[in-house]
Design goal:
heterodimer; A: mainly alpha; about 0% strand; B: mainly alpha; Sodium/glucose cotransporter
């Protein structure tokens, strides 16, 4: 029994809902951060290139 | 009614004023065609996700399906999982980017135009527009009836007046402000819905003694399931129905498949992918969309099922026995009024009003663009109409709102109750195969897509009218023609049209496409061209280098 529910088909569904929503949050937030990182990498690369020129 | 009517009327008036204020913010920004039809293609990810979710979740998803969960149990949670996984994650990450880019590459501003231009076919655009324009009013009618009844019971005003007020308010901001207004208002309403559902969840679990205790109490009530339901396969509220039983078939085929996967191909939702500025916005939107659906559908179904525990403890009856005639639509309202504090009931009422308004607004906009732009301007006038797109669309929206209201008055309740599932099933069978073909299979041909669209819609309608008992019996067309309720017997009348028509539509798409010549490589290159999500990044690099050079 998990979370007071006997049938695995139900507690799996309950947990699947929560974890899929959490997964969505993590995925979305990683994409938010990714851009910041890319931007900082890009601008530092850009600086590098300009300095080399 | 636990809350005084004057308090509620006061709150509703403030709410409507807020709606107009937010709609006006959107209207100021949407004077161009792209603005009116596609919200200017630069909507922030969180607004897009909330608007998508709010359009997705109607009052019936909370009240109606919450009531169904009170009757059949937590098996419905699989639908929530499907909604989050397919309706949000797969939709935003797999379908969204291609739709956005291709829509921009081909200059499409509506969903029917998107698939029409992808397959270079005015027929596909007009036919899809027609499906939306003819069948979506049924779905819209069910939403506005729900809202009218809701206003009638909560505010104690006349039903006809309630329906009129509700429709006129939405019509004002949809017609005047276009999609940007709709999406801004959606986001505001979605926030209210989130507050309402969070309260509902916390109150319910704390009232019943905690998460595990509440579930355990529900599990222990297995002996209280009415005999009639046991015979149909009910095995308790925390157990799936018996395999192959009638409740199992209804739950699995109609609800999980129909509403779960069906969401992928709904025009009023898919068009929202074209409103953001880049692919990354869609990926970010997932962070808001997933939890939003969990808090809407997930909470409604869990609370619906748990209402049995509350009613059993307080009045010694299960939820179905508390409401008159075992009407599942009345279970959630009865639970709210009896179990929740007064202020919460008022907040929750506004959440439900928001759910209905946001869904209806999305439907009105999509139906209007379909009939004004896709059917009239492109189908009938072959793109030669002199009138401006925004103008024609506004007339289209006004016309379809009128049709939906008339349908709300004349159609029998039994048909209206089935309208949501009917529309979603039809969308899936008609649009999903060619939508997938459009985005992911370059070999899909114009003939293949056309055949799939026609076969998918006709076979789905045929199954609805002649085989699937839930629609065939109330419609009565099969009875009138063949003298029997359904053409097939046994388990067939329980099988949802989506399970028959969608595979057929896929098959036709593949077979016909392989037999007919494919599109020119030049066209495919244009359609599938990668857009710059990097447009912004390029300009950023340019400004970086300019700044850096200046620095140097």
């Amino acid at each position: 029994m998990v979370l007071g529910i006997d049938d695995p088909q139900i507690w799996l569904a309950y947990l699947a809902c929560i974890f899929s929503a959490l997964g969505c949050m993590v995925y979305g937030l990683l994409n938010w951060r990714e851009e910041k990182e890319e931007q900082s990498v890009k601008s530092s690369t850009q600086k590098q290139v300009t300095q080399n020129q | 009614m636990a809350v005084s009517t004057s308090t509620l009327i006061f709150l509703v008036v403030i709410y409507f004023a807020l709606t107009f204020y937010v709609a006006r913010l959107g209207y100021k920004k949407s004077s161009q065609t792209d603005g009116y039809m596609l919200a200017g293609r630069s909507v922030p990810p969180a607004i897009m996700a909330l608007s998508y979710g709010a359009a997705f979740i109607s009052t019936s998803a909370i009240i109606g399906f919450g009531g169904v969960a009170a009757s059949t149990g937590m098996g419905l949670l699989w639908l929530v999982f499907m909604n989050i996984f397919f309706g949000i994650f797969i939709a935003f990450v797999v379908f969204g980017p291609g739709t956005r880019r291709m829509g921009l590459n081909l200059g499409a501003i509506t969903y029917p135009e998107f698939i029409g231009k992808r397959f270079q076919s005015r027929f596909i655009q007009a036919f899809s527009g027609l499906i939306v324009a003819v069948f979506m009013p049924l779905y819209a009618a069910s939403v506005i009836i729900g809202a009218g009844r809701f206003l009638e019971t909560t505010l104690g005003i006349n039903y006809n007046f309630a329906l009129l007020i509700f429709t006129v308010i939405i019509a004002c901001y949809v017609i005047k402000g276009g999609l940007l207004s709709v999406m801004y208002v959606d986001a505001m309403q979605a926030s209210i819905m989130l507050i309402g559902m969070t309260f509902l969840l916390v109150f319910t679990y704390s009232k019943l003694g905690g998460v595990v205790e509440a579930h355990q109490a529900l599990t222990n009530m297995v002996n209280l399931v009415p005999q009639a339901l046991v015979e149909q396969g009910h095995r308790g509220w925390t157990a799936m129905p018996a395999f192959n039983s009638s409740i199992w078939w209804t739950m699995v085929s109609t609800i999980i498949m129909g509403v779960g996967i069906g969401a992928l191909a709904q025009p009023q939702l898919a068009v929202r992918f074209m409103t953001v500025k880049d692919d990354r916005s869609l990926k970010r939107a997932v962070a808001v969309g997933g939890p939003f659906l969990l808090m809407m559908a997930g909470v409604a179904y869990v609370v619906g099922a748990l209402s049995n525990v509350y009613f059993y403890r307080t009045v010694g009856k299960i939820a179905l026995d508390v409401v008159p005639g075992g009407n599942t639509d009345l279970i959630i309202p009865a639970y709210l009024n009896q179990a929740m504090p007064e202020l919460f009931v008022a907040i929750f009422m506004l959440s439900l009003l928001s759910a209905a308004m946001s869904t209806a607004a999305a439907q009105f906009h999509t139906m209007g663009t379909a009939i004004g732009y896709d059917v009239y301007q492109h189908g009938i006038m072959k793109g030669k109409s002199g009138a401006s797109t925004v103008h024609v669309t506004k007339i289209g929206i006004a016309f379809t709102i009128l049709v939906a209201v008339i349908l709300a008055y004349i159609l029998p309740g039994s048909i209206i109750a089935r309208a949501t599932a009917m529309f979603m099933g039809l969308c899936t069978s008609a649009f999903l195969p060619l939508y997938i073909g459009a985005l992911f299979w370059k070999r899909t041909t114009k003939a293949g897509a056309t055949a799939s669209l026609v076969v998918g819609s006709i076979s789905s309608l045929f199954w609805l009218v002649f085989v699937h008992a839930k629609e065939a019996v109330p419609l009565g067309i099969c009875q009138a023609i063949f003298g029997k309720e359904t053409l097939l017997s046994g388990v067939w009348p329980l099988v949802d049209p989506i399970l028959i028509a969608t595979p057929l539509s896929f098959l036709v798409l593949i077979v016909v496409s392989l037999m007919t010549p494919q599109f020119s490589p030049e066209f495919l290159k244009k359609a599938f061209r990668l857009r710059f999500e990097d447009e912004e990044e390029v300009s950023e690099s340019a400004s970086h280098s300019a700044a850096d050079s200046a620095g140097v």
